[in-house]
Design goal:
The structure is a single chain. The protein has one domain (17-325). It has ten helices and no strands. The protein has helices at 30-59, 71-85, 87-98, 115-140, 156-190, 204-210, 212-230, 235-255, 259-278, 301-325. The longest helix has 35 residues, at 156-190.
């Protein structure tokens, strides 16, 4: 029987999620080459997105049909979400071509998407996000606390078209970002430290690098750092991104897979982005302030407080569910 030798590295046995990239095909130069390839592909993606944005800007005032929503509004929303979706094939290319391993090793320590666990996490996220949204509406209403500045009420047809785009793209956008930030980044950092039984594995630097802390910090704060460099005046949003990112990264390590992070990201993204469109803040989508990264109110002190509440409640609930259902945190031992 013919077998394919392409991307044939096996998932290492007895390892936590952040160490899954250090398999039998790992070499010391793989992380550096992965970063170079990632930078090249992201640059190409950035040029392509800039080209499309330029075309949309030219068409921004036109309409698809008489009395229809403007092309620029809906296309801008689609570009803001779709550009993140394109991160997924980039991650898969780096993993398969450079790291020579199968993409399933990004999903979980079991090398697969654990559907039942993802469904439980999504249900938990729905409860937590709904509670935080209710708290936000209560606090900015009767109590009069300030949220982000709303824009003019959008046309009903624009909202309908925007919701269709959101429902279609946000799940893919969320999955792509989790594959990149919590998958590739965490496993890339986690692969740096030598194994305990390898030469140099007893050194302090190796022990620190193979611990989960560097991987969780990198996967949890990278987006916040990028946002802070692009928008240094918006510290509240950067802090909110860090809180939500660290929650997702820690849960990815703690539960042995991306399912908990994906469940929260998808549910929160759908609610957050639809709510932003209804508030007339469609232009903010794609800037990082509104990409499903934080609760309603992101960009304000209230938004940061709600992010801490949402992340804490969800993390506690997810850990309790994981213990009750026996979710695997360590990859199965390699056969003898």
């Amino acid at each position: 029987m013919r077998t394919s030798e392409f991307a044939c590295a096996e998932i290492p046995g007895g390892e936590p999620y952040h160490r899954l990239a250090r398999g039998d095909r790992f070499r010391w130069w793989v992380p550096a080459l992965s970063l170079v390839m990632l930078a090249i592909l992201l640059f190409v993606l950035g040029v392509a997105v800039a080209f499309v944005v330029t075309i949309v800007a030219v068409l921004g005032g036109s309409s698809l049909l008489a009395d229809s929503p403007r092309v620029g509004e809906i296309a801008g929303l689609a570009i803001g979400l779709g550009s993140s979706v394109l991160l997924l094939p980039i991650v898969l290319i780096v993993v398969r071509v450079v790291q020579w391993r199968r993409a399933r090793s990004l999903l979980s320590v079991e090398g697969r998407l654990r559907g039942g666990w993802l469904a439980r996490c999504s249900a938990l996220a729905l409860v937590c996000v709904a509670a935080v949204l209710g708290a936000y509406l209560l606090l900015v209403g009767p109590f009069g606390l300030s949220g982000p500045e709303a824009g003019p009420p959008p046309d009903v047809r624009v909202v309908a078209a925007a919701v269709a785009v959101i429902v279609l793209l946000v799940p893919f956008q969320a999955v792509a970002e989790e594959f990149g930030l919590r998958g590739l980044v965490m496993q890339l950092v986690g692969s740096l430290g030598a194994s305990a039984d390898a030469p140099g594995g007893h050194r302090a630097a190796a022990r620190v690098l193979r611990s989960p802390a560097p991987a969780v910090l990198a996967g949890g704060t990278l987006l916040a750092a990028l946002y802070a460099s692009a928008f240094p005046e918006d510290g509240w949003t950067a802090a909110t991104l860090a809180v939500m990112g660290l929650c997702a990264a820690w849960l990815t390590w703690r539960t042995g897979g991306l399912e908990a992070a994906i469940g929260l990201h998808v549910v929160n993204g759908l609610v957050q982005i639809v709510f932003s469109v209804a508030e007339g803040r469609m232009a903010a989508i794609g800037t990082g302030a509104v990409v499903g990264a934080g609760p309603p109110g992101t960009g304000t002190p209230l938004g940061l407080v709600l992010a801490v509440v949402l992340a804490g409640a969800y993390a506690l609930g997810a850990v309790a569910l994981a213990r009750r259902t026996g979710v695997r945190r360590i990859s199965p031992a390699a056969p003898a």
